[in-house]
Specification:
The protein is α+β, with helices and mostly antiparallel strands and about 280 residues long. The protein contains seven helices and ten strands.
Length: about 280
């Protein structure tokens, strides 16, 4: 039996389907000697060839990390290899794009998962969410966004090297979830931004439960992406990857934690938002 259980997939958003635009998201993963590497990227919709950039970024960084990382390395060595992977991917895209570089913008978020320890590199508005061994869901990364509102809000892509973030997550994770913003907006709904809990625990536990119990988890994740109502994720492309360390035990929180947000709370927040808008 493998140390890790993995599932992942991408799907074109309704906004792109209607305009006959290809999916600009990308997902790539690789398994090393006792560790797992996974990366997601979201090509910026305003860029003509961002789908090429997102595929290049995920493929090159995962391959570099899988080839050069050893699980017994020091933390700083692993983070340095992730940084080099980002540098190499950024250089490759620039070299490939040449004078048309502004048509190849993409985000990039990568995790190296070693028996519950998470190392990461992050550029843009995708994200990583961890399920800790104590049963708590927590965001590992934060979206990197500039000024503006909604679709007009700027995203800092891979090309914005000064905004890159690298690190080691401080908790041991039973599972991790990587999402482009087309799914992240469902897991971290704007409606919850003023609440004590800002993540949709019910949705995340649903993902984790299927990761544990579904005998054909890869087919399930493809169907799950299809079932997300397009209006919930702003008709965007959708990418979701989930990895679980099978050897780690977890102590779950009370059931009420995984029932958050309740239907009552959600409906109240939705009604309040509609009243403010209209």
């Amino acid at each position: 039996m493998s140390i890790y259980t993995f599932c992942g997939g991408s799907q074109t958003g309704k906004s792109h389907e209607s305009k006959n635009i290809v999916c600009q998201d990308a997902l790539c993963h690789a398994e090393g000697d006792g560790f797992f590497v996974v990366a997601v990227a979201d090509g910026l919709g305003s860029c003509k060839h961002s789908d090429i950039a997102s595929r290049m970024a995920t493929a090159e960084t995962t391959a570099h990390c899988a080839k050069n990382i050893c699980r017994d390395m020091q933390d700083g060595e692993i983070i340095s290899i992730i940084e080099t992977a980002f540098d190499n991917a950024n250089f490759s895209i620039k070299h490939f794009a040449g004078e048309f570089l502004n048509e190849y913008d993409t985000t990039l978020t990568l995790a190296v998962y070693i028996n519950g320890t998470v190392f990461f590199g992050h550029a843009g508005d995708s994200g990583i969410i961890a399920l800790r061994r104590d049963g708590i869901f927590e965001a590992v990364t934060q979206p990197q966004l500039g000024s503006g509102y909604g679709k007009e809000r700027a995203v800092y892509p891979l090309a914005a090297k000064a905004k890159w973030v690298f690190g080691k997550y401080e908790h041991t994770a039973k599972a991790i979830f990587l999402m482009t913003d087309g799914v992240l907006n469902k897991a971290v709904p704007p409606l919850l931004h003023a609440q004590k809990y800002k993540l949709d625990h019910a949705y995340l536990f649903y993902l984790y439960d299927n990761l544990c119990k579904n005998p054909n988890v890869q087919s399930w994740i493809s169907q799950e992406l299809s079932n997300i109502p397009p209006q919930e994720v702003n008709y965007d492309d959708k990418t979701l990857a989930a990895v679980m360390c099978n050897s780690l035990k977890i102590k779950l929180k009370p059931k009420s934690y995984y029932n958050f947000p309740s239907n009552k709370l959600w409906n109240t927040l939705l009604e309040k938002q509609n009243n403010e808008l209209y």
